């Protein structure tokens, strides 16, 4: 019997999330059978959803591999947002079976789902994924533009040994250098967001799950940009960032539709200008990272990430403000 460390870590993450969900179900007064039913449905639906979206994103490549590749799950190839769709579908089915509100079930699964995701992203390091730039290049004064002597960071270090190893970096088994441990940071920040999610107070059912997905989308926009591994790309565009932007837009629509009375045209326009402005800043930061904006090519990469952090916070605030208005309506 072969042991798969990565798969075992994902199973452990799912188990922790399931135990947390059982506590949430009891805390919210939902029916006890909700736990077992969601576990039976959410895990396979999440796996199949993540696989299906991955195959759609790489459809030409997938067809070359043959339909049988879809079921060779140990070879990897999943998309987070496909798994999210699977979990949402499972929540709606459980609500129909148990005759409970789908919104209340999704609220209960929000924090446990985010815990599962965070622990699962930490596990990426076990399969050689989830890494960023080499730290020697990051702090080098000659990494990007020797003539301009700018480097990738505003901080130039000759000795980077302090950053070699966890929690800062992981060793690349192929090249033998150390790279930023981005997936570990995603996991840690995800757990911080779990605390924020649990401390938030909402009146309407469904608001907590909307807030959870908002936090997840903003986190993904930022940290997908930092990854330099085998993440899904369409040319120079990262698929995770596109999906996150679309999801934030959909969440804003949901908040505006749920608001009673409906917001005025001025409020709706201001919210969309704010959200699209944040997305525009993310695009600018991405082009700056690629040195595609000539008159801004002097900006170090850590400066670009500061701009992206501010843009992600702004997008999150925009959707959260709309969420709070519909929650109070």
Q: Any overview of this molecule?
A:
With 329 residues, this protein is mainly α. It has helices at 5-28, 33-57, 59-65, 80-98, 102-122, 135-139, 182-199, 207-226, 239-258, 265-289, 301-328; strands at 169-171, 178-180, 233-234, 237-238. The protein has two domains: 1-132 and 181-199, no CATH class; 200-329. The chain contains eleven helices and four strands; from the N terminus they run ααααααββααββααα. The strands form two sheets. It has a two-stranded antiparallel ribbon. The chain has a two-stranded antiparallel sheet with strand order 3-4. A hairpin with a 6-residue loop joins strand 1 and strand 2 (178-180). It is globular, with a radius of gyration of 21 Å. The N and C termini lie far apart (56 Å).
Short summary:
The chain is mainly α and 329 residues long.
Unreliable residue stretches? none
> Secondary-structure element sequence?
HHHHHHEEHHEEHHH
Biggest β-sheet: count, sense, barrel? Answer: 2 strands, antiparallel
For the residues shown, what is the average pLDDT? Answer: 87
How many distinct folded domains? Answer: 2
Count of helical stretches: 11
- Total number of strands: 4
Q: Helix coverage percent of residues?
A: 55-70%
What structural category characterises the helix and strand content?
mainly alpha
Primary descriptors:
329 residues; mainly alpha; two-stranded antiparallel ribbon
Task: Give the secondary structure arrangement, pairings included.
Layout: H1 5-28, H2 33-57, H3 59-65, H4 80-98, H5 102-122, H6 135-139, E1 169-171, E2 178-180, H7 182-199, H8 207-226, E3 233-234, E4 237-238, H9 239-258, H10 265-289, H11 301-328
Antiparallel strand pairs: 1-2, 3-4
